[in-house]
């Protein structure tokens, strides 16, 4: 949907200047990259990272009878910190230059008195 209609592009004061499919492509690329690094199998990532395989291997060793499993504890700690660290690779409000936007939107923004090298912002998502 974002690739068809675009995502909102804002100026430094938070005013919406339009919707950009170019910004949407950048945002989706950043989110996919951070999810692949995170290796969350629920995100249907195409990369087989070590973390999901390790999580599957450790989860098969967890016994409900035994209360303490260092491997499961380590796996849980890793998953707890991996998500925020991978989401923080890119800022939530990412930036894009006007010159990097698609031509129709760039034209309307420049007509509005902005310079092509001015930086605008968009919410990348999680």
From TrEMBL:
GO MF, one annotated term? monoatomic ion transmembrane transporter activity
Q: Which Pfam families match?
A: SFXNs
How does the protein associate with the membrane? Multi-pass membrane protein
| Domain of life (superkingdom) | Eukaryota
Check the record and name the PANTHER family matching this protein: SIDEROFLEXIN, SIDEROFLEXIN-1
Record family assignment: Belongs to the sideroflexin family.
Its protein name is DNA topoisomerase
Q: What is the lineage of its organism?
A: Eukaryota, Metazoa, Spiralia, Lophotrochozoa, Platyhelminthes
